[in-house]
């Protein structure tokens, strides 16, 4: 079988301390899963059911723990914003998962950035349109290597610190325990509307104090017990 056009590049994330890789399938994101971020976005922080949107797998940029990744300032925006997030890698799929099945579905964890064209997202929201134009674009999801799960790591990550600095200045700081919906609850709810597959990524939400970056800015993002990534915005 011959392709009529070149096949699009597949994205793979390395597994930390391993020669194995994780082939990225779909990328799901959870909207406003920290109460304080929900407030700053103008929403009621009460525990409403989580809502989801997606990024294309091609938006993922692998970033090594000891490396710097460069991402280009995207077209058509004047408000390019960062959101640090805990990323969950799915190793077992399924639909309508129980909490135990959701726990078992997790292969590992990573540090990620949900980069956003906030002005385009705001325009779409105002008109009741989908968010893809603000969320799903090239290089909008830098993600670290995946750290494989074990019971101790899962417990530590669920309570660990999550944060981001821009040019050395602290911008976002919180704890994963402040998630409105836990990792397992998010997976359960997501599996009620999509049958999950091995290879899916879930970006679990960002804390408060999101903000803009410009060309030349350096972002340093971390989740305690996983590691840190450095991402620079270039022209």
UniProtKB/TrEMBL annotation:
Keyword field contains Metal-binding: yes
Q: Where is the Fumarylacetoacetase-like C-terminal domain?
A: 27-233
Domain of life, per lineage: Bacteria
Q: Does the keyword DNA damage apply?
A: no
- Molecular-function annotations in GO: acetylpyruvate hydrolase activity; metal ion binding
Q: Which Pfam families match?
A: FAA_hydrolase
| Keywords linked to the UniProt accession | Hydrolase, Metal-binding
| Family annotation (InterPro entries) | Fumarylacetoacetase-like_C, Fumarylacetoacetase_C_sf
Protein name stated in the entry: Fumarylacetoacetate hydrolase
User: In which organism is this protein found?
Assistant: Marinomonas ushuaiensis DSM 15871
């Amino acid at each position: 079988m011959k392709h009529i056009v070149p096949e699009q590049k597949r994205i793979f994330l390395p597994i930390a301390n391993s020669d194995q890789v994780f082939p990225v399938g779909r990328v799901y994101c959870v909207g406003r899963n920290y109460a304080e971020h929900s407030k700053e976005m103008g929403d009621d922080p009460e525990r409403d059911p989580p809502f989801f949107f997606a990024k294309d797998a091609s938006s993922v940029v692998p970033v090594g723990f000891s490396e710097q990744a460069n991402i280009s300032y995207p077209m058509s925006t004047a408000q390019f914003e960062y959101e640090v997030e805990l990323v969950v890698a799915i190793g077992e799929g399924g639909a309508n998962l129980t909490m135990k099945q959701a726990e078992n579905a997790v292969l590992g964890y990573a540090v990620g950035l949900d980069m956003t064209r906030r002005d385009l997202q705001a325009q779409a929201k105002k008109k009741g349109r989908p968010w893809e134009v603000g969320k799903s674009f090239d290089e909008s999801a830098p993600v670290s290597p995946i750290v494989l799960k074990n019971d101790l790591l899962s417990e530590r990550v669920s309570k660990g610190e999550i944060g981001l600095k821009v040019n050395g200045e602290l911008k976002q700081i919180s704890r994963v325990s402040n998630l409105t919906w836990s990792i397992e609850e998010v997976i359960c709810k997501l599996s009620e509307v999509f049958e999950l597959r091995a290879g899916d990524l879930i970006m679990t939400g960002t804390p408060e104090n999101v903000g803009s970056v410009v060309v030349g800015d350096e972002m340093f993002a971390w989740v305690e017990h996983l590691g840190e990534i450095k991402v620079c915005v270039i022209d």
